[in-house]
Write a structure and sequence with these properties.
two-stranded antiparallel ribbon, seven-stranded mixed sheet, 17% strand, alpha/beta, binds 2-acetamido-2-deoxy-beta-D-glucopyranose, globular, 274 residues
Length: 274
């Protein structure tokens, strides 16, 4: 526990690191994000808001929103036998796909979101997302998934022999994929294994994205953006209270449900919190 509050750490304390794709801030990092009917909005918009902030002056980036066809893609999932009626929404936004699977440019980073629509795709034996992930994986520097997007990664084969995590409320559905060759980790907010990062449900994608860009571009740039969007990320990738809330088999129930978070780059004290 830290005992001072509101003290900005000197820049020299903040670790910085760069990778090959981030060595030149003017050279665009090519980012692709999949969309599909029934995507979970925050899985995309959370990470994308951080990317947008970083692209302002810290790092040139290009964005491809990818689906079978260009144009609006609704977040409303098609009906699914596996989707409880109680969580079927009546309201949903659309995002506009800018590229198709066929005309997406070379990508450095691909993010695969989750959402209840991937149950419908699975029941329809629609493997277009998995085919695209498997086809593009060799050219990627990094592959990221949020929420049940990890199910698509598992089905594509790229998680074989790797550790991964996914949405804890959809644990049983998502972890059935991967032919038993994926090491699904119950107590993880997110997991990094090689160049594949997978996060737990929905909002966990924001925490993973902060950790990812802290690794890629350095803490000072990532922290500036987090404090601009006024979000205090969870920093402990092994902290996931939703493994307990959703009673995930094999989860460590002794971990605290609460986490002490505050603005990144600052010291803060949670012990006297009212
Ligand atoms: C950012 O990258 C794009 C695409 O490669 C390029 O057209 C543009 O000139 C770059 N911007 C800067 C400021 O270098
Ligand atoms: C999907 O594949 C399964 C297994 O082959 C089959 O039983 C099912 O009827 C297929 N569903 C559709 C919608 O084609």
């Amino acid at each position: 526990m830290k005992f001072s509050t509101g003290i900005l750490l000197p820049a020299s304390v903040l670790l910085t690191s760069t990778s090959v794709i981030a060595s030149d801030p003017n050279k665009a990092i090519s980012i692709g994000i999949l969309v599909f009917p029934g995507f979970q909005p925050l899985d995309i918009i959370g990470p994308l808001d951080i990317m947008m902030g970083l692209s302002s002056r810290f790092q040139n980036m290009t964005l491809s929103l990818i689906w079978k066809t260009t144009g609006p893609v609704t977040a409303l999932a098609p009906p699914s036998a596996n989707l409880p009626a109680a969580i079927y929404p009546r309201l949903a936004p659309s995002l506009v796909a800018t590229h198709t699977f066929a005309d997406t440019p070379k990508l450095d980073i691909l993010l695969v979101p989750g959402g209840s629509g991937n149950r419908f795709l699975d029941e329809s034996n629609d493997t277009s997302i998995e085919d695209f992930v498997a086809q593009r994986y060799p050219e990627l520097q990094y592959l990221l998934s949020v929420c049940t997007g990890a199910a698509s990664l598992a089905k594509s084969g790229v998680l074989e022999g790797k550790r991964a995590t996914t949405n804890k409320a959809s644990w049983k559905w998502a972890t059935q994929f991967g032919n038993g060759k994926v090491d699904w980790v119950p107590n993880a907010r997110w997991i990094e294994d090689g160049n594949i990062w997978t996060s737990s449900g929905v909002s966990a994608g924001i925490d993973m994205t902060y950790a990812f860009f802290k690794m890629l571009l350095g803490e000072d740039k990532a922290a500036t953006v987090m404090n601009r969007i006024e979000y205090s990320p969870h920093l402990d990738k092994a902290w996931d209270p939703y493994a307990v809330v959703h009673k995930v088999p094999g989860a460590d129930l002794s971990r605290s449900l609460g986490d002490c978070v505050g603005p990144v780059g600052y010291e803060f004290d949670c012990s006297g919190r009212k």
